Amino acid sequence: MKLAFIGLGVMGFPMAGHLAKAGHQVTVYNRTATKAQAWTAHYGGVARATPAEAAAGAEIVFACVGNDDDVRHVVLGEKGALAGMSKDSILVDHTTASAELARELDEAAKARGCGFLDAPVSGGQAGAENGKLTVMVGGDAASFRRAEPVMAHYGRAVTHMGPAGNGQLTKMVNQILIAGLVQGLAEGLNFATRAGLDARKAAGVIAKGAAQSWQLENRFETMLQGKFDHGFAVDWMRKDLGICLAEARRNRSALPVTALVDQFYERVQERGGGRWDTSSLIHLLANA
User: Fold this and answer.
1) Could you tell me where the beta strands, DSSP code E, fall in the chain?
2) Residues designated catalytic
3) Nearest to 244 by CA among 137, 136, 172
Protein backbone atom coordinates (compact mmCIF):
# COMPACT_ATOMS: atom_id res chain seq x y z
CA MET A 1 0.00 0.00 0.00
CA LYS A 2 0.96 3.62 -0.35
CA LEU A 3 1.29 4.99 3.18
CA ALA A 4 2.38 8.15 4.97
CA PHE A 5 3.82 8.45 8.47
CA ILE A 6 3.97 11.78 10.30
CA GLY A 7 6.17 12.03 13.38
CA LEU A 8 9.43 10.10 13.66
CA GLY A 9 10.19 10.21 17.36
CA VAL A 10 11.28 7.28 19.51
CA MET A 11 8.00 5.51 18.68
CA GLY A 12 7.23 6.69 15.17
CA PHE A 13 10.69 6.05 13.73
CA PRO A 14 10.63 2.26 14.28
CA MET A 15 6.88 1.96 13.63
CA ALA A 16 7.26 3.53 10.21
CA GLY A 17 10.28 1.31 9.69
CA HIS A 18 8.19 -1.84 10.18
CA LEU A 19 5.83 -0.64 7.46
CA ALA A 20 8.70 -0.09 5.04
CA LYS A 21 10.25 -3.48 5.85
CA ALA A 22 6.89 -5.10 5.14
CA GLY A 23 7.07 -3.79 1.57
CA HIS A 24 4.75 -0.78 1.75
CA GLN A 25 5.60 2.50 0.00
CA VAL A 26 6.11 4.90 2.88
CA THR A 27 6.39 8.68 2.67
CA VAL A 28 7.39 10.44 5.89
CA TYR A 29 7.27 13.86 7.47
CA ASN A 30 8.96 15.07 10.63
CA ARG A 31 9.15 18.57 12.07
CA THR A 32 12.95 18.18 12.33
CA ALA A 33 13.89 17.41 8.74
CA THR A 34 17.20 15.75 9.64
CA LYS A 35 15.32 12.96 11.41
CA ALA A 36 13.21 12.32 8.31
CA GLN A 37 16.41 12.23 6.25
CA ALA A 38 17.91 9.73 8.69
CA TRP A 39 14.80 7.57 8.36
CA THR A 40 14.90 7.51 4.55
CA ALA A 41 18.63 6.78 4.64
CA HIS A 42 17.89 3.72 6.78
CA TYR A 43 14.62 2.48 5.30
CA GLY A 44 14.28 4.07 1.88
CA GLY A 45 11.05 5.81 1.02
CA VAL A 46 10.59 9.54 0.57
CA ALA A 47 10.52 12.51 2.95
CA ARG A 48 8.33 15.53 2.30
CA ALA A 49 8.44 19.10 3.58
CA THR A 50 4.88 19.28 4.95
CA PRO A 51 2.31 16.83 6.32
CA ALA A 52 -0.01 17.63 3.41
CA GLU A 53 2.68 16.72 0.87
CA ALA A 54 3.46 13.50 2.71
CA ALA A 55 -0.23 12.54 2.84
CA ALA A 56 -0.92 13.21 -0.84
CA GLY A 57 -2.01 9.99 -2.54
CA ALA A 58 -1.60 7.84 0.57
CA GLU A 59 -4.24 5.19 1.32
CA ILE A 60 -3.55 5.43 5.05
CA VAL A 61 -1.86 8.30 6.87
CA PHE A 62 -0.39 7.58 10.31
CA ALA A 63 0.51 10.22 12.88
CA CYS A 64 2.48 9.84 16.11
CA VAL A 65 3.40 13.17 17.68
CA GLY A 66 3.43 14.76 21.13
CA ASN A 67 0.08 16.10 22.35
CA ASP A 68 -3.30 17.49 21.30
CA ASP A 69 -1.85 20.76 19.97
CA ASP A 70 0.81 18.93 17.98
CA VAL A 71 -1.84 16.69 16.41
CA ARG A 72 -4.02 19.66 15.48
CA HIS A 73 -1.01 21.33 13.85
CA VAL A 74 0.06 18.35 11.72
CA VAL A 75 -3.49 17.26 10.83
CA LEU A 76 -5.74 20.33 10.76
CA GLY A 77 -3.26 23.08 9.90
CA GLU A 78 -3.17 24.83 6.52
CA LYS A 79 -0.47 22.38 5.42
CA GLY A 80 -1.74 19.57 7.63
CA ALA A 81 -2.33 16.00 6.59
CA LEU A 82 -6.06 16.35 5.91
CA ALA A 83 -5.35 19.09 3.37
CA GLY A 84 -3.46 16.55 1.27
CA MET A 85 -5.54 13.41 1.85
CA SER A 86 -7.70 11.84 -0.82
CA LYS A 87 -11.32 10.85 -0.37
CA ASP A 88 -11.73 7.37 1.16
CA SER A 89 -8.23 7.42 2.64
CA ILE A 90 -7.84 6.83 6.39
CA LEU A 91 -6.14 8.91 9.07
CA VAL A 92 -4.76 6.87 12.00
CA ASP A 93 -3.59 8.85 15.02
CA HIS A 94 -1.21 6.89 17.27
CA THR A 95 -0.60 9.87 19.56
CA THR A 96 -1.74 9.51 23.15
CA ALA A 97 -4.17 12.42 23.25
CA SER A 98 -7.63 13.32 24.54
CA ALA A 99 -10.83 11.55 23.56
CA GLU A 100 -12.24 15.01 22.82
CA LEU A 101 -9.56 15.55 20.16
CA ALA A 102 -10.26 12.12 18.65
CA ARG A 103 -13.91 13.03 18.14
CA GLU A 104 -12.89 16.39 16.67
CA LEU A 105 -10.58 14.69 14.17
CA ASP A 106 -13.26 12.13 13.33
CA GLU A 107 -15.65 14.91 12.35
CA ALA A 108 -12.98 16.75 10.36
CA ALA A 109 -12.05 13.57 8.49
CA LYS A 110 -15.68 12.76 7.70
CA ALA A 111 -16.13 16.27 6.28
CA ARG A 112 -13.42 15.44 3.73
CA GLY A 113 -14.80 11.98 2.99
CA CYS A 114 -11.99 10.25 4.90
CA GLY A 115 -11.98 7.66 7.66
CA PHE A 116 -10.41 8.21 11.07
CA LEU A 117 -9.06 5.95 13.82
CA ASP A 118 -7.66 7.01 17.19
CA ALA A 119 -5.12 4.30 17.94
CA PRO A 120 -2.84 5.03 20.91
CA VAL A 121 -0.26 2.37 21.70
CA SER A 122 1.32 0.76 24.74
CA GLY A 123 4.62 -1.06 24.95
CA GLY A 124 7.15 1.75 24.91
CA GLN A 125 10.17 2.20 22.69
CA ALA A 126 11.14 -1.46 23.01
CA GLY A 127 7.68 -2.53 21.90
CA ALA A 128 7.87 -0.22 18.90
CA GLU A 129 11.32 -1.45 17.90
CA ASN A 130 10.36 -5.12 18.31
CA GLY A 131 6.98 -4.78 16.62
CA LYS A 132 5.11 -5.86 19.75
CA LEU A 133 2.92 -2.90 20.62
CA THR A 134 -0.59 -3.07 21.98
CA VAL A 135 -2.85 -0.87 19.85
CA MET A 136 -6.18 0.36 21.24
CA VAL A 137 -8.40 1.61 18.43
CA GLY A 138 -11.50 3.79 18.24
CA GLY A 139 -13.39 4.60 15.04
CA ASP A 140 -15.74 3.04 12.54
CA ALA A 141 -15.49 -0.69 11.90
CA ALA A 142 -14.93 -0.41 8.14
CA SER A 143 -11.85 1.80 8.57
CA PHE A 144 -10.55 -0.54 11.26
CA ARG A 145 -10.87 -3.59 8.99
CA ARG A 146 -8.80 -1.84 6.31
CA ALA A 147 -6.11 -0.53 8.65
CA GLU A 148 -5.78 -3.44 11.11
CA PRO A 149 -3.57 -5.66 8.88
CA VAL A 150 -1.20 -2.72 8.38
CA MET A 151 -1.01 -1.85 12.07
CA ALA A 152 -0.32 -5.53 12.75
CA HIS A 153 3.19 -5.00 11.34
CA TYR A 154 4.10 -3.34 14.65
CA GLY A 155 1.23 -4.42 16.89
CA ARG A 156 1.01 -7.83 18.52
CA ALA A 157 -2.51 -6.95 19.70
CA VAL A 158 -4.63 -4.55 17.64
CA THR A 159 -8.11 -4.27 19.13
CA HIS A 160 -11.16 -2.30 18.04
CA MET A 161 -12.73 -0.68 21.12
CA GLY A 162 -15.73 1.05 19.54
CA PRO A 163 -16.41 4.55 18.17
CA ALA A 164 -13.95 7.42 17.86
CA GLY A 165 -12.46 8.36 21.22
CA ASN A 166 -12.67 4.87 22.69
CA GLY A 167 -9.08 4.10 21.78
CA GLN A 168 -7.93 7.10 23.79
CA LEU A 169 -10.22 6.22 26.69
CA THR A 170 -8.75 2.71 26.77
CA LYS A 171 -5.23 4.14 26.81
CA MET A 172 -6.25 6.27 29.79
CA VAL A 173 -7.23 3.10 31.64
CA ASN A 174 -3.80 1.70 30.76
CA GLN A 175 -2.00 4.72 32.21
CA ILE A 176 -4.17 4.75 35.35
CA LEU A 177 -3.24 1.12 35.99
CA ILE A 178 0.47 1.68 35.36
CA ALA A 179 0.60 4.66 37.72
CA GLY A 180 -0.67 2.56 40.60
CA LEU A 181 1.47 -0.43 39.69
CA VAL A 182 4.73 1.50 39.56
CA GLN A 183 4.05 3.30 42.83
CA GLY A 184 3.24 -0.01 44.53
CA LEU A 185 6.40 -1.56 43.10
CA ALA A 186 8.51 1.39 44.29
CA GLU A 187 7.07 1.15 47.79
CA GLY A 188 7.53 -2.63 47.94
CA LEU A 189 11.15 -2.58 46.80
CA ASN A 190 12.02 0.29 49.12
CA PHE A 191 10.36 -1.55 52.01
CA ALA A 192 12.27 -4.76 51.20
CA THR A 193 15.59 -2.89 51.16
CA ARG A 194 14.97 -1.04 54.44
CA ALA A 195 13.75 -4.27 56.08
CA GLY A 196 17.10 -5.92 55.35
CA LEU A 197 15.80 -8.36 52.76
CA ASP A 198 17.64 -9.37 49.62
CA ALA A 199 15.35 -7.22 47.49
CA ARG A 200 16.35 -8.95 44.25
CA LYS A 201 15.55 -12.36 45.64
CA ALA A 202 12.28 -11.05 47.06
CA ALA A 203 11.30 -9.60 43.70
CA GLY A 204 12.18 -12.87 41.98
CA VAL A 205 9.92 -15.00 44.16
CA ILE A 206 7.08 -12.45 44.21
CA ALA A 207 7.14 -12.33 40.40
CA LYS A 208 6.00 -15.96 40.41
CA GLY A 209 2.93 -15.21 42.53
CA ALA A 210 -0.19 -13.08 42.46
CA ALA A 211 1.77 -9.80 42.47
CA GLN A 212 3.45 -10.60 39.14
CA SER A 213 3.40 -7.78 36.57
CA TRP A 214 5.33 -6.58 33.53
CA GLN A 215 6.58 -3.65 35.57
CA LEU A 216 7.92 -5.96 38.30
CA GLU A 217 9.69 -8.31 35.91
CA ASN A 218 11.17 -5.61 33.68
CA ARG A 219 11.89 -2.76 36.08
CA PHE A 220 12.81 -4.09 39.54
CA GLU A 221 16.52 -4.55 38.74
CA THR A 222 17.06 -1.06 37.33
CA MET A 223 14.95 0.47 40.12
CA LEU A 224 17.18 -1.14 42.74
CA GLN A 225 20.24 0.13 40.86
CA GLY A 226 18.83 3.66 40.64
CA LYS A 227 19.07 3.61 36.84
CA PHE A 228 16.33 5.55 35.06
CA ASP A 229 17.94 6.50 31.73
CA HIS A 230 15.59 4.36 29.65
CA GLY A 231 11.92 3.73 28.95
CA PHE A 232 8.90 6.02 29.17
CA ALA A 233 9.81 9.47 30.48
CA VAL A 234 8.19 11.12 33.49
CA ASP A 235 7.37 14.20 31.38
CA TRP A 236 5.34 12.03 29.01
CA MET A 237 3.63 10.22 31.86
CA ARG A 238 2.56 13.48 33.46
CA LYS A 239 1.11 14.59 30.13
CA ASP A 240 -0.86 11.33 29.93
CA LEU A 241 -2.03 11.49 33.55
CA GLY A 242 -3.18 15.06 32.97
CA ILE A 243 -5.40 13.74 30.16
CA CYS A 244 -6.73 11.00 32.46
CA LEU A 245 -7.52 13.43 35.27
CA ALA A 246 -9.24 15.88 32.91
CA GLU A 247 -11.41 13.10 31.49
CA ALA A 248 -12.21 11.89 35.01
CA ARG A 249 -13.51 15.35 35.87
CA ARG A 250 -15.78 15.17 32.83
CA ASN A 251 -17.16 11.69 33.53
CA ARG A 252 -17.16 12.20 37.32
CA SER A 253 -15.00 9.17 38.14
CA ALA A 254 -12.74 9.21 41.18
CA LEU A 255 -9.00 8.78 40.59
CA PRO A 256 -7.48 9.40 44.04
CA VAL A 257 -4.44 7.13 43.58
CA THR A 258 -3.76 8.47 40.09
CA ALA A 259 -3.94 12.06 41.33
CA LEU A 260 -1.53 11.27 44.16
CA VAL A 261 0.97 9.51 41.89
CA ASP A 262 0.80 12.47 39.50
CA GLN A 263 1.93 14.66 42.41
CA PHE A 264 4.81 12.27 43.09
CA TYR A 265 5.88 12.53 39.45
CA GLU A 266 5.77 16.31 39.78
CA ARG A 267 8.27 15.98 42.64
CA VAL A 268 10.50 13.81 40.42
CA GLN A 269 10.42 16.58 37.82
CA GLU A 270 11.39 19.10 40.50
CA ARG A 271 14.46 16.94 41.23
CA GLY A 272 15.48 17.17 37.57
CA GLY A 273 14.04 13.81 36.58
CA GLY A 274 11.63 14.84 33.85
CA ARG A 275 13.39 12.61 31.32
CA TRP A 276 13.88 9.72 33.74
CA ASP A 277 11.94 6.51 33.28
CA THR A 278 8.60 6.35 35.13
CA SER A 279 10.08 3.76 37.51
CA SER A 280 12.01 6.65 39.09
CA LEU A 281 9.22 6.94 41.67
CA ILE A 282 11.48 4.82 43.88
CA HIS A 283 14.00 7.69 43.92
CA LEU A 284 11.63 9.72 46.11
CA LEU A 285 11.40 6.89 48.64
CA ALA A 286 15.04 5.85 48.61
CA ASN A 287 16.15 9.46 49.10
CA ALA A 288 13.46 10.66 51.48
Assistant:
1) 2-6, 25-29, 46-47, 60-63, 90-93, 115-118, 121-122, 133-139, 155-162
2) 171
3) 172
Torsion angle (degrees, nearest 10) of CA 76, 170, 62, 18: 160
pLDDT class for 128, splitting at 50, 70, 90? very high
16 vs 36: CA distance, rounded Å: 11
Predicted confidence (pLDDT) per residue in 14-23, tens digit = 999 999 999 9
Single out the residue of 128, 116, 37 nearest to residue 71, CA to CA. 116
The number of residues in the chain equals: 288
What is the rounded distance in angstroms from the CA atom of residue 214 to the CA atom of residue 203?
12
Provide the angle, in degrees to the nearest 10, between the axes of the packed helices 166-194 and 256-270.
Answer: 70
Question: All domains of the chain, ordered by start, with CATH?
Answer: 2-162 (3.40.50.720), 170-286 (1.10.1040.10)
